[in-house]
């Protein structure tokens, strides 16, 4: 089927589809076409079963490493408890993943549900009502106010027809439709006035059109196709965990190889047999298992889940766990204008009468002719003592009167309508004749330039006089000035007549008018949006505004929000201009543009991809059907909970429950906190594991007594759980929103974390080995070598466990000193350390010593252990001090 039906005359469309405007299709034609084109419904890709979703969770590199570790731990090292713990963590993580991740096909399901249930069509010369799914190309569909357009139509008739298309185009003002053929082949969707698109809403008038697209061949169908074909982008969190898994694998393999080779080479040549080989292999595998932070995936999931709860309190509902952390890495927020940065509600902002412009907050008299004309020449329905139904432009005028404490229902009753000349798109005017005592008040509103052609007088300060050329020029200049401010301007006029009209036509009613004023309306920006844009800017985040609205409107709103600075060179790029740019050129120059107007859904996806091609992490906000593909393409899609369509919500990673742009900035702050806390947990876990590995490795190499498997497992259980989780609920650090975005190339080891893991792990190992050596020379058993070695090993065991709890305090800050007023503000952390310390020390209880192969220590030995823990804090603080001095932070 052809694409640009708006460039074809209605007779050409009628001929192309072999249909009749007067009679419609025959039953046989409709049946044949339904078989050929299929039902007027949207297709979706095949859904994954729950089992396949579960299996997909195990494709993560980190998870594969853990499974291999569990197998080696159980089969080779015979540590079945360790293996079971690892597998439980892996399975729980997969279950959480399945239930937390949003279903991508939910967006398509929502699109299907949007389909209108019935449509009025001409079949065999009669008007009948059929399910919209049975519509076929060539059907003649009738439209009236309140209808949802059931398919894409080329309009053949349009009687004062207005269609609200914001869900598809992003333009908040209903579009006035016409049946005339358009010229040009690259007309933006919102400017195709002779077309009506599926799932848009008729707000005024009536019309008729030929179905030119059904199902997946409609504009909404194109969006569904884009959703089905959208690339699934890996979140920074997933990329970072994959990188961590690869790093761990290399490190683990290196440990295995080094320990195995060194162990074999150090042995007596006479003992180099298969038994030695197997023993050394078991030692290597045990060390490799000790190096894996098996609790990390679970801890990351818990930190993310806690992050979602915090965000929910701030009205940000997270649908995919990794989205929490992704927000913190965001470089660019591509925001839809209508309903996101603005209120999606037309509002009177300025009114011009008596020769001057008044802001909306100024009072206005109930008898002011400008007010009378805007209220009386108005088809808004008032229900439930204040609910306004009708065209958004007209409801804005009535709301303005309500805001001025005008009793509008009483006014409408007093000046009751007796005649009218309805609006039409040719003359762009509307008039009503209303009772006015024993006379009649003719109220007129419409396009200022058309209205002025019919004006002969003007009222200023209650005095009516003939209008002068200077006054006309002043009115037109004011109209132009208001339009440049992105205001939608209507002219207001009136006259008083002695009797009603025998023939109420424009030629009789709309002549010899008295000019009353102008009224300027706009979909205003949200009050908190400007501050949010400024805060995002301070955090190094670029705000890009994308809208289906006109260029002038987009620029004015962007300047009011601070996205564009008045007078700067940066200009607004339109969708038509964007279409002419090559991908290579646009990718290189995407940073030159902050505002886009009259864009299509394809344009939005292209903008997101261009930023991503520059290595930026992109968040996209939106509330309409037209936003769904770009929401899915973005690293994080943010839907609107109140004004958002089910389609946009289904394609989103996160939904704003209050539709507040400022909530995004708060969510970014929480996302940065989540990343910081995961980084702290990784620093803590990895440095502790390096300490464990180094301790056992050196003990093996030096031929000392080695910690028993049950002791290593106990340390992992006690220190790798409560303290690590508690680090995940650390409060937001001061100044976190003054840092620049870390970007896509950063990872959990960035910012000095990798070097900290290494030196802190080595320090931990040295302190433990030192405690072991001191343990050989202090305590009650210095004269009993066997018991003394047991004491020393117990001291090494308890030092390794307790030193990690001391180190958890170090891990609260990567570079900052722990000696500040906020260090112990996290009560969960404080309790976690106390409980873990008690559990760790409980192995010294008489009935526990045999189970853990330890001896009971005296005061001197415990003092050595505590001193080792304090040294861990003191030495790390000294290193941090010099790092800060050298500017490594």
Q: What is the element layout, followed by pairings?
A:
Layout: H1 10-16, H2 27-37, H3 50-56, H4 61-76, H5 80-100, H6 106-113, E1 118-123, E2 126-131, E3 140-144, E4 152-164, H7 166-169, E5 175-176, E6 195-196, E7 201-213, H8 219-229, H9 236-266, H10 274-291, H11 296-313, E8 316-318, H12 322-328, E9 332-336, H13 337-341, E10 347-353, E11 356-359, H14 369-376, E12 381-383, E13 387-389, H15 392-403, H16 408-414, E14 417-424, E15 429-436, E16 439-446, H17 448-452, E17 455-460, E18 463-466, H18 469-484, E19 488-497, H19 506-509, E20 513-522, H20 529-538, E21 542-546, H21 551-561, E22 573-574, H22 575-579, H23 583-589, E23 595-597, H24 601-613, E24 618-622, H25 628-633, E25 636-640, H26 646-650, E26 654-656, H27 661-702, H28 709-719, H29 722-727, H30 753-775, H31 785-810, H32 827-841, H33 859-885
Parallel strand pairs: 9-21, 9-24, 17-20, 21-23, 22-23, 24-25, 25-26
Antiparallel strand pairs: 1-2, 1-3, 3-7, 4-5, 4-6, 4-7, 8-26, 10-11, 10-20, 12-13, 14-15, 15-16, 16-19, 17-18, 19-20
Helix pairs in contact: 3-5, 4-5, 4-9, 4-10, 9-10, 10-27, 11-27, 12-27, 20-27, 23-24, 27-30, 27-31, 28-31, 28-32, 30-31, 30-33, 31-32, 31-33
């Amino acid at each position: 089927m052809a694409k640009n039906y708006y460039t074809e005359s209605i007779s050409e469309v009628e001929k192309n589809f072999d249909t009749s405007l007067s009679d419609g299709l025959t039953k046989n034609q409709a049946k044949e076409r339904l078989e050929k084109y299929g039902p007027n419904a949207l297709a979706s890709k095949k859904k994954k079963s729950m089992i396949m979703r579960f299996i997909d969770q195990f494709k993560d590199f980190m998870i594969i490493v853990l499974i291999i570790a569990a197998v080696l731990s159980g089969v080779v090292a015979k540590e079945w408890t360790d293996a079971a713990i690892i597998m439980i963590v892996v399975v729980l993580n997969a279950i959480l993943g399945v239930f937390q991740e949003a279903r991508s096909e939910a967006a398509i399901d929502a699109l299907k549900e949007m389909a209108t249930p019935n449509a009025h069509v001409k079949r065999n010369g009669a008007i009948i009502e059929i399910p919209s799914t049975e519509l076929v190309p060539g059907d003649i569909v009738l439209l009236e106010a309140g209808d949802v357009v059931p398919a894409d139509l080329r309009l053949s008739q349009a009687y004062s027809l207005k269609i609200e298309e914001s869900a598809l185009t992003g333009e908040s003002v209903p579009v006035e439709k016409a049946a005339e053929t358009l010229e040009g082949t690259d007309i933006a969707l919102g400017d195709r006035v002779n077309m009506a698109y599926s799932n848009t809403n008729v707000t005024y008038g009536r019309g008729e059109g030929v179905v030119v697209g059904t199902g997946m061949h409609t504009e909404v169908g194109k969006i569904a196709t884009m959703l089905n074909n959208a690339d699934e982008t890996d979140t920074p969190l997933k990329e970072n965990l994959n990188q961590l898994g690869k790093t761990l694998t290399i490190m683990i393999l290196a440990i295995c190889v080094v320990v195995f080779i060194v162990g074999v080479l150090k042995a007596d040549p006479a003992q180099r047999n298969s038994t030695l080989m197997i023993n050394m292999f078991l030692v290597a595998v045990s060390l490799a298992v000790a190096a894996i932070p098996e609790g990390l995936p679970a801890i990351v999931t818990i930190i993310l889940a806690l992050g979602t709860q915090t965000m929910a309190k701030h009205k940000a509902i997270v649908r995919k766990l990794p989205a929490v952390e992704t927000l913190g890495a965001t470089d660019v927020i591509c925001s839809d204008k209508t309903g996101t940065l603005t209120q999606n509600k037309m509002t009177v902002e300025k009114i011009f009468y008596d020769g001057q412009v008044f802001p909306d907050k100024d009072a206005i008299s109930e008898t002011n002719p400008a007010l009378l004309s805007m209220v009386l020449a108005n088809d808004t329905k008032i229900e439930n003592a204040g609910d306004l139904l009708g065209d958004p432009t007209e409801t804005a005028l009535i709301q303005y009167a309500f805001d001025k404490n005008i009793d509008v229902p009483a006014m409408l009753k007093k000046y009751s309508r007796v005649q009218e000349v309805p609006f039409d798109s040719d003359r762009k005017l509307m008039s009503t004749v209303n009772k006015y005592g024993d006379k009649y008040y003719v109220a007129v509103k419409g396009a200022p330039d058309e209205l002025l052609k019919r004006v002969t007088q003007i009222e200023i300060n209650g005095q009516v006089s003939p209008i002068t050329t200077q006054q006309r020029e002043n009115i037109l200049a004011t109209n132009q000035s208001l339009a440049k401010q992105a205001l939608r301007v209507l002219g207001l006029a009136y006259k008083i007549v002695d009797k009603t009209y025998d023939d109420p036509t424009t030629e009789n009613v709309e002549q010899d008018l008295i000019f009353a004023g102008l009224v300027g309306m706009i979909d205003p920006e949200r009050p908190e949006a400007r501050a949010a844009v400024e805060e995002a800017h301070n955090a190094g985040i670029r705000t890009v505004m994308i809208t289906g609205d006109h260029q002038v409107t987009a620029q004015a709103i962007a300047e009011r929000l601070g996205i564009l600075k008045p007078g700067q060179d940066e200009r607004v790029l339109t969708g038509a201009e964007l279409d002419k740019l090559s991908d290579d050129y646009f990718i290189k120059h995407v940073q030159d543009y902050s505002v886009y107007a009259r864009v299509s859904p394809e344009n939005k996806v292209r903008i997101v991809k261009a930023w991503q091609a520059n290595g930026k992490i992109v968040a996209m906000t939106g509330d309409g059907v037209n936003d769904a593909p770009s929401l899915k393409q973005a690293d994080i899609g943010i839907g609107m909970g109140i004004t958002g369509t089910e389609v946009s919500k289904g394609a989103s990673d996160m939904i704003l429950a209050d539709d507040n742009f400022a909530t995004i900035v708060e969510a970014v702050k929480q996302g940065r906190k989540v990343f910081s806390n995961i980084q702290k947990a990784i620093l803590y876990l990895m440095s502790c594991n390096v300490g464990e590995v180094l301790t056992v490795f050196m003990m093996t190499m030096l031929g000392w007594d080695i910690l028993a498997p049950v002791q290593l497992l106990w340390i992992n259980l006690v220190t790798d759980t409560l303290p690590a989780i508690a680090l995940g609920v650390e409060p937001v650090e001061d100044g976190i929103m003054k840092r620049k975005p870390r970007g896509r190339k950063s990872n959990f080891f960035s910012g000095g974390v990798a070097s900290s893991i290494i030196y802190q792990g080595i320090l931990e190992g040295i302190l433990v080995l030192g405690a072991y050596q001191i343990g050989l020379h202090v305590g009650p058993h210095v004269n009993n070598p066997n018991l003394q070695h047991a004491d020393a090993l117990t001291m090494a065991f308890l030092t390794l466990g307790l030193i990690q709890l001391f180190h958890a305090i170090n891990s609260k800050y990567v570079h900052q000193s722990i000696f500040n007023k906020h260090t112990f503000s996290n009560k969960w952390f404080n309790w976690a350390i106390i409980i873990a310390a008690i559990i760790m020390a409980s192995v010294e209880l008489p009935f526990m010593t045999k189970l853990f192969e330890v001896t009971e220590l005296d005061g001197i030995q415990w003092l050595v252990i505590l001193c080792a823990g304090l040294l861990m804090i003191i030495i790390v603080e000294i290193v941090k001090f010099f790092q800060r001095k050298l500017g490594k932070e």
